[in-house]
Amino acid sequence: MLENNQTTAMRESLSALMDDQTSEMELMRVLKATEQQPELRQRWANYQMISASMRGDMPAVPYMDLSSSISAALEDETVHASVVAEKTWLHRVGRMAIAASVAGAVIVTGQLSGFGVDSNEAPAFAASGAPSVSGAVPSAALPAGFRAPEFSARTVSSHKSMPALEGRALVKRAPSAPVSRRPSPEVQAYLQQVMQLHADNASVNTGRGVLSYARVPTVKAQPPQPSE
Amino acid sequence: MVRAPYKSFLLLLSACDLKRRRLLVAAVAFLFISMPAVAADNLERVGVLLGGMSQALREQSYQGLFTYEHGGSLETLKLLHQVSDGVEVSSLERLNGPAHRYSPSARKTDCLSPSDRRLRGLLPDVSGVLADLAAHYHFYIREDQRVAGREATVLQIVPRDEYRFGHTFTIDKATSLPLGAMIFTPNKTVLERLQFVDLSLLAEAEPLAVAPSAFLCRSESVPEELWAVGWMPSGFMSAGVNRSESVGDMMMFTDGLSSFSVFIRPSVDGVAAQGQAQRGATVAFMQQYRFGQAMYTVSVVGEVPVRTAQRIANSVQPRSQG
């Protein structure tokens, strides 16, 4: 049963790979599995052939599995020392990456960063849309390939004053200068207005109904000005 | 690679000859293997889930408490939704921080938005259950969960491209209402999460006191469109336009699950800022552009990645006269 599940999971990963939908870890897993399971390797080859036929570029010659003869040929090659060094280095990086992703947390700023409409937290550049935080894919929150139930996910703040996060380069500032600057009250008011109007759109157009209004920031009557 | 699986399947069918029959069988097998959670019957089930949710949210009377979690903050809100005589009225009250209550205009429950129509499979020009959504998202039905003391089905919706966000809905089995909703980026970082802690159905309300001025259904008369959005992710369609003194021209778009709005107005001194903002999954991108002799402020607000918002803003052009 367990083995069966693993096989199914691996096949899913393989088709995800065909769809360009794999994470790096998943890719590594698939590559490793194909080394050991001829059945999976054959399947991969079949997928490639099917996709080639769908694109209409089927090879004229019949399919041959060259991988074993190639690896046999490689076995005979004299091994260069530098290659070995590189491999161990890569291995170490790979292991580090896995460790990092296990330890990683979701780094999300919930406030209106940049413009700083929500004034109760220090502005920090938002994570979303900035692919720079892709290294922080949370394994606890969202396992690679979404194989587990999701609602155990936690979102974690990237508050500036959290020393644990300061050493990490996970939260990056936007390259353009205006982003970190607090905008004028007029800009804030305008933003508040457009976000409110957008919530009207979202409430009828995202299948969430009135829940969408939860996103509209509330602007405090007298925003605290700690720095003045 | 299988961007529009059903389309390629049909193409293959039409080009089918004897030599290719074996390939076709392989291709069909491949389609099912490659989308383990999106087999046809499953897609039908997804359609029932999404359509049922869209309908339940609007047509049932319920109240509840839910949390909204984004970044490091957690807020609690109280929701009341009442339906009487085909008219829905709702209110949302913040229980944390500054007191605030949202009371959207009353609407007729049979007044369907483009998103409602898409989620319920009512768009006339689309063939197949959810075919248009399935072209842009992968659907996965996950293990059942218990939320707010209720049994729920977990539907995960993963974008096929990097231009939109993914969603997870935890849908109550008894009422089809969403007990939880989560948005994550294409690289699977969670941006925000809504989750009920308590939800109860209400008996049909007394006839509601609805102000006659309430809009009930957005009028179909469309103001003249002065702007054209040159680029947006495929699958998004117009959900109306609006014009007001204070914010300028507003254009709304949705792909059924996410929406964005484009605001354009002549630049005003003091508001001629540029930059981006984010709260939960909502991104706001603002930029100044010169069209002809005048400067304009273009803002894109929506549940889309900031790069998408930026690209949309950059593609706005005045519609040529005549």
Describe the overall structure.
The complex is a heterodimer of chains A (about 230) and B (about 325). With about 230 residues, chain A is an all-alpha fold. Chain A has 3 domains: about 1-55; about 80-180, no CATH class; about 185-220. Chain A contains 7 helices and 2 strands; from the N terminus they run αααααββαα. The longest helix of chain A has 23 residues, at about 80-105. Chain A is elongated. With about 325 residues, chain B is of the alpha+beta class. Chain B has 3 domains: about 1-35, no CATH class; about 35-200, Lipoprotein localisation LolA/LolB/LppX (outer membrane lipoprotein receptor (LolB), chain A, Clam); about 225-320, 2-Layer Sandwich (Phosphorylase Kinase, domain 1), CATH 3.30.200.100. In chain B, strands 1, 2, 3, 4, 5, 6, 7, 8, 9 and 10 form a 10-stranded antiparallel β-sheet that branches. In chain B, strands 12-13-14-17-16-15 form a 6-stranded antiparallel β-sheet. Chain B has a two-stranded antiparallel ribbon with strand order 11-18. In chain B, α1 packs antiparallel against α2. The radius of gyration of chain B is 22 Å and the shape is globular. The two termini of chain B are about 40 Å apart.
Task: List the keywords.
heterodimer, A: 228 residues, mainly alpha, 3 domains, two-stranded parallel sheet, 2 strands, disordered C terminus, B: 322 residues, alpha+beta, outer membrane lipoprotein receptor (LolB), chain A, Phosphorylase Kinase, domain 1, 10-stranded antiparallel sheet, 6-stranded antiparallel sheet, globular
What's a quick, concise take on this entry?
The complex is a heterodimer of chains A (228) and B (322). Chain A has 228 residues and is mainly α.
Layout of SSEs?
The complex is a heterodimer of chains A (228) and B (322).
Chain A lengths: L1 H17 L5 H13 L1 H18 L11 H10 L4 H23 L3 E2 L47 E2 L5 H4 L18 H21 L23
Parallel strand pairs in A: 1-2
Helix pairs in contact in A: 1-2, 1-3, 2-3
Chain B lengths: L4 H10 L6 H14 L5 H20 L2 E9 L2 E12 L2 E8 L6 E2 L4 E2 L5 H6 L11 H4 L2 E11 L2 E10 L6 E7 L5 E7 L5 E12 L25 E3 L7 E8 L3 E7 L4 E8 L8 E5 L2 E10 L2 E9 L3 H9 L1 E3 L4
